[in-house]
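Let's practice the habit of predicting before peeking. Look at the sequence and jot down your guess about where helices and strands might fall. Then scroll down.
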Amino acid sequence: MAPSLLHFKTAAAVAVASAKAAENDNVSRVQLPDKTRNSRVLVLGGTGRVGGSTATALSKLCPDLRIVVGGRNREKGAAMVATLGKNSEFAEVNINNKDSLEAALSDVDLVVHAAGPFQQSQKCTVLEAAIETQTAYLDVCDDTNYAFRAKSFKDRAVDANISAITTGGIYPGVSNVMAAELVHAARSESKTEPERLRFSYYTAGSGGAGPTILATSFLLLGEEVVAYNKGQKIKLKPFTGMLNVDFGKGIGKRDVYLLNLPEVRSAHEILEVPTVSARFGTAPFFWNWGMEAMTNLLPAEFLRDRSKVQQLVEWFDPLVRAVDGIAGERVSMRVDLECTNGRSTLALFSHRRLSVAVGNATAAFAVAILEGSTQPGVWFPEEPEGIAVEAREELLKRAAEGAIAFVMNKPPWMVETDPKELGLGIYV
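Done guessing? Here is the structure:
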């Protein structure tokens, strides 16, 4: 779920602009290779919360990049371009129209697809257009079916000699790389085999990412959860299997619930971990109750219908915006790894603002592609052909810009507010 932008009076707007300028001065800029330093990057959904945050983060990381804000609303596009400055422009793009897409991609070096929601989409039109025009590709997909449909284009991408990453946002995305690093450390440093991998996510309110994230949350409630237990694929009811997870200082203990997320399957297959699951929770606590009630009271067919879900979003959005003003938009990701020798380690990422963190995360993947860290083909973030093993540390560092907590490969007691030994329990 995700909080709204508030309309400030002039004095407040000046204060925010000053804060952003100061924030911009503190960002570590990236020196891209000569051949990609002045690349043109098209951000589809660039007038939205996720795309706009990505465009902003990219312009700060790499001021020489030429950012093309892709969308259908010229007024919003002009406002975004005014914010980004002289190295930006707006392009009117309809992602459902092949000709419109290919025209927009004809003179760009990388396309970032942030125009969700991805749930219930039957085609990978942007990826297909990227392959057709030989344009590097990145998406922030958070849907299992879409992500694996994108993977099916791997051979075509290799033939076109383009690099493509799917699920390259914050979660999934950065969380996948965190998991890959935990598994790599377990095998290379401790000479032990991973046994259980658990993704836990928390976002206050709707996270500042707008109606698209709200729609995504509702659509996921209509999907049966796929998890893995000792190598066996199992299916579970969404928003069940609650766990109380300690996200450490600044976030604390939060209830999280099972959801069907693509990193579960990709981590199981690519990292070869036999038991994998993913959970999500939000605040205030009554949002969790509401999500649980929707799962129990509304038919799955209703929650899979994008038009009906859009009506729900329109009804709930004013209430969500009001509560978001109080709840804030803190975000936290915790990835736990348990190994056959009893070793338990975690990775933890927390940020005060999801709307900023998701932009930093997506921009970090975009920069990695421009730096040449990705091979031709379509890859998940945890695949070494997607993000080279030696490039992971730098990607995580860039994604964690401004984080209130970023910890890798530590025992749980070092970060928990109320440390206790983690048992294997009965949950996947």
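How did you do? The chain has a mean pLDDT of 87.
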